[in-house]
Amino acid sequence: MSLRKIATAVVTASVMTACASTGVQQLKDESSDSVSEKIIKGKSTKDDVRGAFGDPTETSFTDSGKEIWRYKYSHSTSKPQNFIPLVNLFTSGADVDKKELVVFFDDEGIVKNYAMQSSKEEVKTGILPQ
Predict the structure, then answer these.
(1) CA-based diameter of the chain, in Å?
(2) What is the mean pLDDT of residues 104-123?
(3) How far is CA 119 from the centre of its chain?
(4) Which runs of E-coded beta strand occur in the chain?
(5) 43-79 b/e with 16+ CB inside 10 Å = b?
(6) Once rounded to an integer, what is the mean pLDDT over residues 110-127?
(7) Which of 13, 15, 119, 122 is most buried by its number of CB atoms within 10 A?
């Protein structure tokens, strides 16, 4: 294979990188600071939170019956080598950005506490994941 064909394959693979998002899209551009502008402890209600972020991904309850809402968002971008034949058998993967918002309500449905977390992960697959 000529150097020109290899270069063309690399450029094509770079342009073709695939992306995928799952979860609550309202979290996409949120940070701890922006969430703190939308949720106020002791004041914001379930309706306020639902209005800002939509329906939660998960709902659970504490032993004492207090409600907890979880919002999750994930965005992955495929690595360029995923699109290069044969190379992708040996090494491939994705970069993943994750966000999670957890909101804890009191008995009256008022926000008692909340936490916003962001993380970046790298998923590696193939015969030779490093």
Answers:
(1) 70
(2) 94
(3) 8
(4) 19-23, 58-61, 67-78, 92-105, 111-125
(5) ebebebbeebbeebbeeeeeeeeebbbebbbbbbebb
(6) 89
(7) 13
Cα gap 81→92, rounded to integer Å: 6
CA of 6: how far to CAs of 11, 79, 113, 125, in Å? 9, 17, 54, 22
Q: Which residues of 86-105 are buried (b: 16+ CB within 10 A; e: fewer)?
A: ebbeebbbbeeebbbbbbeb
Q: C-alpha distances in angstroms, 18 versus 82, 99, 123? A: 9, 20, 14
Measured at the CA of 17, the angle between CA 16 and CA 23, to 5 degrees, comes to 135
CA 48 to chain centroid, in Å, comes to 22
For the segment 3-57, what is each residue's pLDDT rounded down to a tens digit? 565 555 555 544 445 788 888 899 989 999 999 999 999 999 999 999 999 999 9
Among 99, 79, 93, 105, which Cα is nearest to 14's? 79
